[in-house]
UniProtKB/TrEMBL annotation:
The modification 4-aspartylphosphate is found at D52. Keywords: DNA-binding, Phosphoprotein, Transcription, Transcription regulation. Residues 2-123 form the Response regulatory domain. PANTHER family: TRANSCRIPTIONAL REGULATORY PROTEIN NARL-RELATED (PTHR43214:SF24), TWO-COMPONENT RESPONSE REGULATOR (PTHR43214). Pfam families: GerE, Response_reg. It comes from the Bacteria. GO terms for biological process: phosphorelay signal transduction system; regulation of DNA-templated transcription. GO terms for molecular function: DNA binding. The keyword Thylakoid does not apply. Residues 143-214 form the HTH luxR-type domain. This is DNA-binding response regulator. It comes from Actinorhabdospora filicis.
């Protein structure tokens, strides 16, 4: 997999580059500014863009805005955001871009297993969707009226749905039956006025559809 990495912190950039090499991926460009990121993608279309959110010059949301620009210019370009923060202004827009295909958003301090992280990158590069549950939780907080209809258990199920978990996986994590999970999911879709979904990816897209205000 050919990856373009955008990270302004040199030590973090070198560490991620080494990690990607460890898993057999090629870092075709390693840059520290959004302008360099855009130029690198235009020069060499990668299999995946891995970018931080806060980059020079203002260290606010430059990385996210560059990712959105690239997704608009190159439809289908897989983008994975790895950040210390959830930038609420553009996060939902990024996750919804391109129908939610080939996009990921994880928090750096939530990466506890490098193999799972590598698998998440490969999933996004293949057109899948990966969303850190803490990101979902913060974005859902922006729309409290509909979310307030959910019970605490339904919120737990919704967060795991956003991670792409199957009913069986959710049941194992929450120590309930699959039938109970199915009941919670039906209630979630009804309360949030979302259509039923047939597989894990469409379930994630349903969450993203809710985030954009459906």
């Amino acid at each position: 997999m050919r990856v373009i990495l955008a990270e302004d912190e040199v030590l973090m950039r070198e560490g991620i580059t080494a990690l990607l090499h460890r898993f057999g991926h090629e870092v075709t460009a390693s840059v520290g500014t959004p302008g360099e990121l855009i130029a690198a993608v235009r020069a060499t279309r990668p299999d995946l863009v891995l970018t931080d959110v806060r980059m020079p010059p203002s260290f606010t949301d430059e990385g996210l805005r560059a990712a959105l620009e690239l997704r608009g210019e190159f439809p289908g370009l897989p983008v994975f955001v790895l950040s210390l923060y959830v930038e609420q202004t553009y996060a939902a827009e990024l996750l919804d871009s391109g129908g939610g295909d080939g996009v990921g958003y994880m928090l750096k301090d939530r990466v506890g297993d490098v193999h799972e992280f590598a698998e998440a990158l490969e999933r996004v590069a293949g057109g899948g969707t990966v969303v850190d549950p803490h990101v979902v939780r913060q974005l859902l907080a922006l729309r409290r009226d509909p979310v307030s209809r959910l019970t605490p258990r339904e919120r737990e199920v919704l967060e795991r749905m956003a991670e792409g978990r199957s009913n069986a996986a959710i049941a194992r994590e929450l120590f309930v039956t699959e039938a109970a999970v199915g009941k919670h999911i039906r209630a979630i879709f009804a309360k949030l006025e979302l259509g039923m979904a047939e597989n894990d990816h469409r379930r994630v897209l349903a969450v993203l559809a809710y985030l954009r205000g459906r």
